[in-house]
């Protein structure tokens, strides 16, 4: 390569071949996936900063370091950023990166659509973050854009409209991701990669895509109605019953969206845990069925967010039963992961540690949802910090830990270099300890009667809990900075690895690290769900 | 091996951490593990359900932690190259049966205690006191049948069935006084209803749980349950004051 460069010094490089432009114009699933994940990590730093400022305001009773308006804006921006600009894009980006590699495909079925999804996300993320600069500042009607609080009479300025437009862009991006993923899994599997041999993660991505296909358009429509009301005076969501209607539409999207994050996190863990336990997943098909059931029940149970809205006991009961079924299938999945570790010889890499952390935090999030599913108890605890802590254990705890497990696992495939394990373990300990220190007290404050989203409180007894949360959030932030340092250091000078540093089971470990643009020059025969392991054993048998 | 030992230490730390959290929660005053002291039949029933859910959740979580600790401890003994086989149908059945049984317990308890948790006597039942409640971003207004109004606190006679007709003048709010029962969402343009019976005298605090803008943290509620005679005296005086101010204005 050096020789070629010096041989033609005057040659004009086509503009598409510039080092930066090659990434900006990328349609290849690997580049788009990496860009999506890295962008989500940038927004993670933003979201953590919001969280730290909020928690600093809450550390002391009657505190005034943040104004009431400012606090309402922080609550909204933290929720929107964490859910829609960090965790959901992170899992979708990982899926975009790894799905074609797992099924032996060259790329996603619709590469330009991959790029469009990504740029819609970037544009929406910039728009949302830029609302701080708009007249009146960032939106203040919570991440759910509560109607009528988000309407013109109560939320003046442009921020709420900008947020609405950005959410529509995001929803379109997620819908495109869903179509692209379904088309890829249905049409781009390598020869021999039957549905029965698909890795559990690919099943997760398929279920997640099916759920988003149904629910993302509902977010787009609900938000469009709000934007029309605000900007065109259509009065669609005014009048009796419309706030209730909007709540139903929003949660019909949001509850399954949390399900999508959990499903993809479950998929990541179902790849990481077996490889580092040196065995097959303990119950493949039942686990896949459980993941599909999580998708179904996360849609049906959406109405458990609408307890105490005067709906009939019959409706409350149906939503409760769906929410309880969701808990049962999620608990079953947890049991399968634990059983996979049971009796194996786990290699305690950072990736596996984050998966174990995922199991613990995800379990807490799932089990805490029992308090909100059992609807009479939810009449007491919905809307309190117990509910926000439950969501945090699922999303910022569970899913984000699975994302880090996936990053430590697939980083060598993405960049050909392995992340530093010592720094990784330090990050894990910081994040696990910090997370629990931050959010256990919020469970308790909810039971004591503190609603989430209040700018301040008068009861000095609550300061101890809030200070603990502040300290914990600081420790989590330190852990994330350790990761940032580790990532940069590894990209510059990490240890290079070959195709298969972990003795993996699935096809991505047959590709180069990083893979060539078309992923595979050749493919091994695919005769089971673990083709690379089969090949390794065959070679060993032939060699020995 | 050292890694396994480290993990065992960490999982022991996790168990100790959980025990400390629970013990600290049990000792703190008021306890952050229990719902505020119930002062109505409905709140009592909800508290009963809460404890069952608490037990079920804690039991399942303990199983997860035990399973993880066991898995990481057992791995030390394994030394062969052979892989453990897939789970037997019997184990799978157990994995399905335990969570299903746990959530069935929750559902059964909810249905068994539901009518008590609602404690909603029919509208117009004998002895029912009806109060209109208007929620605003800035506060609450209580209007009694005789025209008396109050905005500082809702005064009710202890032991009487109180039915609230709740409306909102601006955005969505909720009515929540934990000691007296569950919350009710108040959508603008609709009339929500709530009923409760305070079974002891006292001032019970609550608040809206639905973010309502910059004054959300100040949207607190106080309900004062008084002996009937004191309540009657207050009501008469409040109505007179209202009448006086009306004629004066």
The average pLDDT of chain B is 89
Largest interface: A-B, 93 and 88 residues
Largest sheet of chain A: 2 strands, antiparallel
Largest sheet of chain B, order of strands side by side? 3-2-1-5-8
Q: Identify the overall geometry of chain B.
A: elongated
- How many β-strands of chain B, per DSSP? 10
Name of the CATH homologous superfamily of the largest domain in chain B: Cupredoxins -  blue copper proteins
How large is the count of helical segments of chain A?
Answer: 16
User: What general form of chain A does the structure show?
Assistant: globular
Structural class of chain A: mainly alpha
Total helices of chain B: the number is 4
- Name of the CATH homologous superfamily of chain A: Cytochrome c oxidase-like, subunit I domain
- What does the main sheet of chain B amount to? 5 strands, mixed
Query: Could you tell me the mean pLDDT of chain A?
Result: 95
Short structural summary:
The complex is a heterodimer of chains A (544) and B (249). Chain A is mostly helical and 544 residues long.
Question: What's the SSE blueprint?
Answer:
The complex is a heterodimer of chains A (544) and B (249).
Chain A: H1 2-7, H2 19-24, H3 29-58, H4 68-103, H5 111-130, H6 159-187, H7 200-232, H8 242-277, H9 284-300, H10 313-341, H11 350-373, H12 375-381, H13 385-415, E1 417-418, H14 421-448, H15 463-493, E2 495-496, H16 531-543
Antiparallel strand pairs in A: 1-2
Chain B: H1 2-27, H2 41-74, H3 89-118, E1 128-136, E2 139-144, E3 149-150, E4 154-157, E5 161-168, E6 173-175, E7 184-186, E8 192-197, E9 202-207, E10 220-226, H4 228-248
Parallel strand pairs in B: 1-5, 4-10
Antiparallel strand pairs in B: 1-2, 2-3, 5-8, 6-7, 9-10
